[in-house]
Amino acid sequence: MENLENIQLNVPLLRRKVSNLTAAARSVGLRPATVSNLCTGKIPIGRAEVKTLVALATLAECSLDDLIIRGEKMEMIETGIKTLDAFAPLTKGGTIGLVARFGMGQLVVLAEMFHRLKKRGFTTVLLVPSGENPEINDITVEVDVQVHSVDEAYEKLVALGKEKDIAFAADRSNVISGDIHQLQERLSNVGVTITTFLIDIKGEAVDEDLPFGPLETLWQFDADLAARRKYPAVNPIYSTSSILEGGYLEQNHLVVQQRAQKLLRRYRELRSLVSVSGIEKLPASEVDTYHRGERLEAYLTQPFYVAEEFTGKKGETVHLRETLDDIRKILDGEKDSISVENLTFIGKI
């Protein structure tokens, strides 16, 4: 029997073959959320219903053998950003969707990603959305090349792709128009691989099941975290990556990630109770859970290099092994003596 841990959905093929996956999925009786979870790996392929895979293969006009990739390794790019590396790793050559409403900090996260990737030798390219979008000015300092059309993007990316790793960003308006679908298909035909970031300047993606089509990585921003200024406001429970499935990461990473998500889910439930009745109403058995959830949430905040002049805090990079070790210590109660304040906006403990 084939090892189900070594198979994955062929997301690039789906992206090329099905331009509007949300509508297409509904048309054959599939829930868009289920398709999204299969694309990002939140639902492993080994647990997918056969009829779902058959329907996807039909939409893509391909065989099941083409739809399912066996044994290919994905490469994780370690960003040094605690929340992203631990809960929704960046996949090199993949497509990453940032889902956020206005004011949640998605452009700051993109600018920080470009800043960090440039240090690793990447060339950063932005497809400038049409119309007046002054907020884009916040990230242009980290952009090496600005392009204004799909044809111009294609020419630049092909020329650069032969020499360098590329981080490319575009707005959801370019996805809706079909421009990104067309661009990715053309690049695939000439063998150019880029790491693509899709943002949503208008903040409408939050209301869609598949706002960008198939993704390797989804960074879901959280209104509650943003309101309480817990930045980056990327939700560690609902953000995900296909690299988490299929045996691509060390077992320790998966164990820590799953334990941390379990704690954070319960902590969010307890926060609701505490906000209504006060912490004194919590059962004694839940008090430690609540406080450890507080500490973990605080620890996952992080100073960014691109925000230093606004925050007055020096940017921090934390290696994945350090992040996982710190999270484990918080989960195990080894850091119960440290206050929430002393864990907020730091690097490693």
Automatic annotation (TrEMBL):
Taxonomy, superkingdom: Bacteria
Subcellular location, record wording: Membrane
Organism: Evansella cellulosilytica (strain ATCC 21833 / DSM 2522 / FERM P-1141 / JCM 9156 / N-4)
Protein's recorded name: H+transporting two-sector ATPase alpha/beta subunit domain protein
GO cellular component, one term: proton-transporting ATP synthase complex
InterPro entries xrefs: ATP-synt_VA_C, ATPase_a/bsu_AS, ATPase_alpha/beta_chains, ATPase_F1/V1_b/a_C, P-loop_NTPase
Domain ATP synthase A/B type C-terminal: 248-326
Family named by the database record: Belongs to the ATPase alpha/beta chains family.
GO molecular function, one term: proton-transporting ATP synthase activity, rotational mechanism
Annotated PANTHER family: ATP SYNTHASE (PTHR15184), ATP SYNTHASE SUBUNIT BETA, MITOCHONDRIAL (PTHR15184:SF71)
Coarse class of the protein's main subcellular location: membrane
Keywords from the named record: ATP synthesis, ATP-binding, CF(1), Ion transport, Membrane, Nucleotide-binding, Translocase, Transport
Keyword Zinc-finger in annotation: no
